[in-house]
TrEMBL record:
Residues 62-387 form the FAD/NAD(P)-binding domain. InterPro entries: Auxin_biosynth/cation_transpt, FAD/NAD-bd_sf, FAD/NAD-binding_dom. It comes from Actinoallomurus oryzae. It holds the Pfam family Pyr_redox_2. Keywords: Oxidoreductase. Transmembrane segments: none annotated. This is FAD-dependent oxidoreductase.
Length: 553
C-alpha cells in the first residue's frame, strides 16, 4: 500500500458515513476524527455509537429491561426493524407494575395510550383499539393492550417474566477500563424465578424498568426522617386500592396522605368516597408548600378533562371539610409503638409555620415521588444530571423547577445517549427524580432509539410530540390559592420561565392568558420531522420530596 493510499484511507472511511465521529467502526483501529476528544466522546457527541458496527455485536440481542408500556413499545419497534431482542421483566406477567395501580383510571383516552408500532403489530391479529374516547384503568390497559401485544408472533417467546435485572456492565471489564472498552459486549446480570443467577450478553441495552417501588423518603432534605424505617408497617405506596383490595386498612381509620401530586389526589378522593359509607374514616393531607394551586390545576380548561376534574373535585373536598389540609408541614420524625400497629397509631412529627405539630395516624400514604435504581448501573458509564438524575441532555427539558406546564420538548436518541455505547435509559426512569412523565414521551423515545440502533439516523433525529394544552397555568383559573407574593396575572410564577420549545397551536390564534400558550382546550404539536399523531397519555405525577418549600407548591 502506498503512503498516499494510507493517508487517504481514514478520509475515505469518514466520507462513507463519518462512522459516528470516528475514523473506523472497528474497535481495534478506530480513532477520533477530532484529536481533541476521545473516541467515546466523539461517538457520544455524534449521537450514535456505531453499535450496529461493533465486531460481532450484530450476533447479540438488544436487551430491553421492563415489560411495561414503554418496554413493550421498544420491543414492537425492534421487531418491526428486524433486530434481535429479548425483554426481561421482574414481575410475573407483562405490565406487572401497572397492575399494582390497576384500580386507577388514566387521565387520557385510549387514542393516546398506545404506541404506533404496537398497533401495527396488533391489528393483523384482529385486535381493535377500544373506544378511543374512553378512559381506561391501569388494569384495562394491561388486559386490553399489553397482554395482547405480548402475544403477537413477533414478541411471543421473547419476553422472560420473573427475571430481575440486578446489574448492567461490560463483559470482562469494569467501569474504570477505557482502552478497548467497546470491544466487549454489554452484560446483563439477572436473577430468575428459581433464584438462579445468569449473565446475558447484549449488543445494546434499553432500560425501561421505571422507578415504581423506589419511593422518595418522607423526611426532609431527601433523607428518611428519624424513625421512618421503624414505621414501615404503617406506610403504603402512593396508590393503594382504598375502595377495593386495601379497603379494610383504611375503613374507619385515620389516614395521613403526604404529597402534592396526582397520586396523592387520587388517594385523597378515594378516601373521601370511603368515608361516606365507613363511619370514623378520617383524612389528613400534609404538604410542604403553603399553596396547593398547582395540583388544583386548570379545571375545565385542562386539555385532559379527567385531570382537570381531579383538581376541581379535590378542591371541593378540602373546602367542604372532608379532608383536613395541613400546609407547610415538613416531616421530622416518626414514633411507633413498640408492639406495632396493633398497639395504636404512629406519631408523625412535623415542623409548620406555627411550630411543631404531631399527627397520629393509622396509615401514612407516601405519595412523595420516586427515584431511579442507579445501583444496578454502577459498572457502566452513565452521564446523569446531578439534580434530577436524568440524562444530562434531557434534564433541562424536564426539570421540575422550570417545567410544569405539560408541554415536553421533543427529544430522542441523541438526548438519551450515554458515554457507554449502546446503553439507554428510557421511559419513567429516564426522568430520574423529575415528577412528571408522559407515556407518549416514552413511546417517542424508544422509536428514536431503535431507529438509531438500526442505523436509520434520519428517523432517529425526526422527533415530535403531539400534546393537548394542559391549561394548568391559566391565569383565570389558578389565582385563589397563590403563594404569598405571587403575581395575580402570572398563574404559575416561574414554572414556565424557560426557553420555549417550537410550538404549533392547532387553532387560528392562541387565546387566553396561559403561560403555556393557550388556556383553551387545543392540541399542541411540538417538534419537527416526524408525522403528527404520535399521541399523548398521562403518566403518574407525584409530590416532591427533598426540600422545605418549592415556588409552585
Amino acid at each position: 500500500m502506498s503512503e498516499n493510499t494510507e493517508a487517504q484511507e481514514p478520509a475515505e472511511k469518514a466520507a462513507e458515513g463519518d462512522c459516528c465521529g470516528v475514523s473506523s467502526c472497528r474497535a481495534d483501529t478506530e480513532q477520533s476524527l477530532d484529536p481533541a476528544v476521545t473516541v467515546i466522546e466523539a461517538r457520544t457527541n455524534a449521537g450514535c455509537g456505531c453499535v450496529s458496527d461493533q465486531d460481532g455485536a450484530t450476533d447479540l440481542p438488544v436487551v430491553v429491561i421492563g415489560a411495561g408500556p414503554v418496554g413493550l413499545a421498544a420491543a414492537a419497534h425492534l421487531a418491526e426493524r428486524g433486530l434481535d431482542f429479548v425483554v426481561l421483566e421482574a414481575g410475573d406477567k407483562v405490565g406487572a407494575t401497572v397492575s399494582e395501580w390497576g384500580h386507577v383510571r388514566l387521565f387520557s383516552p385510549w387514542r393516546y395510550d398506545t404506541d404506533a408500532a404496537a398497533r401495527r403489530l396488533l391489528e393483523p391479529t384482529g385486535w381493535k383499539l377500544p373506544d378511543q374516547d374512553a378512559l381506561p384503568t391501569g388494569a384495562e390497559l394491561v388486559r386490553d393492550y399489553l397482554v395482547p401485544l405480548a402475544e403477537v408472533p413477533e414478541l411471543a417467546g421473547r419476553i422472560r417474566t420473573g427475571t430481575r435485572v440486578v446489574a448492567v456492565a461490560r463483559q470482562g471489564v469494569d467501569v474504570t477500563r477505557t482502552v478497548g472498552r467497546d470491544e466487549h459486549p454489554l452484560l446483563v446480570r439477572t436473577v430468575g424465578p428459581d433464584g438462579a443467577v445468569a449473565d446475558l450478553a447484549a449488543r445494546a441495552v434499553i432500560d425501561a424498568s421505571g422507578t415504581w417501588g423506589r419511593g422518595n423518603p418522607l423526611g426532609h432534605s431527601g433523607l428518611p426522617a428519624p424513625g421512618e424505617e421503624q414505621a414501615a408497617p404503617y406506610l403504603t405506596g402512593p396508590l393503594p386500592d382504598v375502595l377495593g383490595r386495601d379497603r379494610e386498612r383504611f375503613a374507619g381509620r385515620h389516614t395521613l396522605v403526604v404529597g402534592m401530586g396526582h397520586s396523592a389526589a387520587n388517594t385523597l378522593l378515594a378516601l373521601a368516597e370511603l368515608a361516606k359509607t365507613s363511619p370514623g374514616t378520617r383524612i389528613t393531607w400534609a404538604v410542604r408548600g403553603s399553596s396547593v394551586a398547582r395540583l388544583y390545576g386548570g379545571g375545565d380548561a385542562d386539555g385532559l378533562p379527567a385531570r382537570g376534574a381531579l383538581g376541581t373535585r379535590l378542591k371541593a373536598a378540602v373546602e367542604g371539610g372532608e379532608i383536613e389540609l395541613v400546609r407547610s408541614f415538613t416531616v421530622t420524625g416518626f414514633t411507633s409503638p413498640d408492639e406495632g400497629p396493633a398497639a395504636g397509631p404512629v406519631q408523625v412529627t412535623g415542623v409548620t409555620l406555627d411550630g411543631e405539630r404531631v399527627v397520629e395516624a393509622d396509615t401514612v400514604v407516601a405519595a412523595t415521588g420516586f427515584r431511579p435504581d442507579l445501583e444496578m448501573l454502577r459498572e457502566i458509564r452513565v452521564e446523569l444530571d446531578p439534580a434530577t438524575e436524568a440524562p444530562v441532555r434531557l434534564a433541562p427539558m424536564i426539570g421540575p423547577n422550570f417545567h410544569s406546564c405539560g408541554t415536553v420538548p421533543p427529544h430522542g436518541e441523541r438526548d438519551l445517549a450515554h458515554p457507554e455505547t449502546g446503553f439507554y435509559l428510557v421511559g419513567m426512569k429516564s426522568y430520574g427524580r423529575a415528577p412528571t412523565f408522559l407515556m407518549a414521551t416514552g413511546y417517542e423515545q424508544v422509536r428514536s432509539v431503535v431507529a438509531a440502533l438500526a442505523g436509520d439516523r434520519a428517523a432517529a433525529d425526526a422527533v415530535e410530540l403531539d400534546l393537548p394544552e394542559t391549561g394548568v397555568c391559566s391565569t383565570t383559573l389558578v389565582t385563589d390559592d397563590q403563594l404569598p407574593g405571587a403575581s395575580a396575572d402570572s398563574g404559575c410564577g416561574t414554572s414556565c420561565g424557560t426557553e420555549p420549545a417550537e410550538v404549533t397551536v392547532a387553532s387560528d390564534e392562541a387565546e387566553g392568558g396561559s403561560c403555556c400558550g393557550t388556556s383553551t382546550r387545543q392540541p399542541v404539536t411540538i417538534g419537527v420531522g416526524a408525522p403528527a399523531g404520535l399521541g399523548f397519555a398521562t403518566g403518574r405525577v407525584h409530590g416532591y420530596s427533598g426540600d422545605a418549600e418549592r415556588g409552585d407548591d
